[in-house]
Amino acid sequence: MANEEEEEEASGCISPSSFTLLVSCPSALSPSQVSVAFCDTYDRIPHPDIILENSISQIWEQRAQNNKSLFNGKKFRYGGYTLHNGSGSDPEHHLCIHLGLTDYRTFVGTNLSPVWERFLVPSEDDPVLCQHTSSPLGNGAVVETLDKKILVLQRSNNVGEFPGHFVFPGGHPEPQEIGITSHQHDKELTESTNSDVSREMFDSIIREVVEEIGVPPSSLSFPAFIGISRRNLNVRPAAFFFIKCSLDSKDVQQFYSSAQDGYESTQLYAVSMVDLENMTSKMPGCHRGGFALYKLMVDTKKSVT
C-alpha cells in the first residue's frame, strides 16, 4: 500500500487535478481478496459548529429549488480500510474496506459546500480528516481493449462537475441495488450485508462500464481492485478497478454510439499509455489518481516479469 500526493499549485489553491492515493494495490486484488465492513461506526460525525452543520440543509434546499430533478439517494460512505498482508499458508493480501451510509444531500452540503474546507479536521489520518464530510465512495474503471488501448470518456458540457474533462467510466456502488436503506444490527444480518456490499462494489463497476460505454457484460473480465484515490479538492474518494475487454477499440466505438448513459459524455477515446498520461492534466484529481494506480499496477507487473 502507498500514499502519494500531487503537489498543489504554486498559488496555494487546491488544484482540481491534485490527488492523494488512500489505498494502492499494484498486485490487483480479486473479489475474494476484498471484503467490506459496513457499519454505522463509519458514518459521518455531525460537525460541532451548529451554524456550519445547519448550512447543509440550507445549501440543499437552495440547490433543490434551482434544480427540481435533484434526488436525495443513499450512498456508501468511505471510512478507511484494514490491510491484512499475506503470510505463511495464505500468501495473498486481503483488504477490508470500511463503509458507512450517507446521502447525496449531505454530500452537496459538505464536500460540495462553498466552505467545504471548514468541515475538515487537521489530521494525517484520512478518516479523522474527513469525519465531518459525507465522502461518498465513487468508482472508476481502467478498461483495456483487446488491442491494448485504454478507454477514456470526455464529459459532456451539461454535467454538473468537470464538464469537458477526461474521465474513466464509473459512478458509485449503490445501496438501493442491494436493498440497503439503513444499518442492520443483527449479527447474522450484518455478515450477510457485508458480503452483499462487497459484491456490489464489483458488480457496480461492471454496470457503470456497460451503461456508459455500451459494451456487453460478457465482453468484460472480472474487475481487479487496484486502489482508492481521493481528489484533494472537496476530498472526494473513488475506488478504481482494472478490467480487460475482449473487443478491440473499433468494435467498442460501435457499441459506444448506442450507450445507455451516452448523454453524460460526448466522446470515447481509445488511447495508448503515453497518450493517456498526456490527458491526465485535464482529469479530475480522483481520476488522475486512478491513472497513477493503473501505472503502479503496470510497473509492478513489469518488474515481476
TrEMBL record:
Which cofactors does this protein require?
Mg(2+)
Give a yes or no for keyword Hydrolase in this entry. Answer: yes
Gene3D superfamilies according to UniProt: Nucleoside Triphosphate Pyrophosphohydrolase
Does Manganese count among this protein's keywords? no
Q: Which InterPro entries match?
A: NUDIX_hydrolase-like_dom_sf, NUDIX_hydrolase_dom, NUDT22/NUDT9-like
**What molecular functions are annotated in GO for this chain?**
GDP-mannose hydrolase activity; metal ion binding
The leader peptide range reads: none
Sorted alphabetically, the keyword list is: Hydrolase, Magnesium, Metal-binding
Domain Nudix hydrolase: from-to ranges: 134-299
Q: What is this protein called?
A: Nudix hydrolase domain-containing protein
Give the source species.
Crotalaria pallida (Smooth rattlebox)
Highest lineage ranks of the organism?
Eukaryota, Viridiplantae, Streptophyta, Embryophyta, Tracheophyta
